[in-house]
Specification:
Elements: H1 10-24, H2 28-41, H3 47-50, H4 64-76
């Protein structure tokens, strides 16, 4: 979910995620610590690298176009040839 939020909303949303997920099981805290260190606090990868909010209206929302292309290719070839 974080890559689809604006950069101003990421810190608050991640805080909410930590709050909710820590109530589920304590082992999730290892994951949230890793994400916090790598993407939020120290930013090993800059937010502009992994944040996709600017692409939401540009890129297709589903992979239907890929499935359609794949289906078209399969219609031209026998997928289970008899030997």
């Amino acid at each position: 979910m974080l890559p689809l939020l604006s950069t101003q909303e990421i810190n608050e949303a991640f805080g909410n995620i930590i709050e909710e997920i820590s109530n589920v099981h304590h082992s999730f805290l290892k994951l949230t610590d890793y994400i916090l260190r790598t993407y939020i606090e120290e930013e090993l990868f800059s937010r502009s690298f992994w944040n996709l909010v600017d692409l939401v209206d540009i890129q297709p929302k589903t992979n239907n176009h890929i499935e359609g292309y794949h289906g078209e290719l399969n219609s031209h070839y026998q997928t289970r040839p008899s030997l």
